[in-house]
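Structure tokens please, single chain.
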Amino acid sequence: MREDVSVTYEDGRPFLNTFGIYIDRIADMEYRDELLKILIPMQRKMDGTSEIEDNELQEAEQRKSLKIGSLAELKRHIKPGTEIMATYHSKHPDIVGLVREVTKVQTNGFYSVIKGQPGHRFSQGPGFRSGFQKAGEYIFDGTTIKVLDSRKKDGSILYELEVYEPELRMNNNHKEEHTVNDWDRLHRQAERYKQSYPPGTRVMLLNMGSDPCPVEDNTRGTVVAVDDIGTVHCAFDNGRALGLVPGEDSFRKLTEEELQQEQAPTMAGPALDM
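Here you go.
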């Protein structure tokens, strides 16, 4: 099955659509599971990634996955360079078992690419996008993070995920060497922002980067907190509450003059006849 395939029932309802040997849509989930047992080895062989993925799986098994207990804690660990792996995915079963590396983090989700496979379809552009769900749609079960399917509303699992702790790696001479760790950089940046933007600091949002529901430009707000990856969480004067991401969103403190104008009493009053 090297070309795109479309199979329908006798009444014309779609049964199976593929992109080459990758499943795009299928109606019978039990048949899908059996078909994937055949297709996934073919995909790996065709892509030349069988050996790479086997090595990555062995590496993942040797590494410790983090025990995460809350959405806030998960967000602290999801940062550029973090490695994750889906152990189950109801929509994209072919991503299961592939070690992914986070490339970009936004306030409402993050992107990741397949580690060591720049040609993989999930590594194109910024990578595979995973949205952050509401806190109630996560089940934190030891080192496994289960994400509920918010569309079904029946408790169905959308995917299961593991997050791996950073470790020292060994080079070919079995010498320990530190990997480039963006967490250190983000942590230092976060400490600087915590000092510069303590709770209560008044700010002006100049422009919100790629957020799909941005706060309007030039909106003022008050800093509530700065988290451990440097996101500046604000309560805006228009009633919105959102985190500002340094490097993606443009913002500044109010000037002394602007603060004085905000604090000055209103001079307007009833007119007096002279």
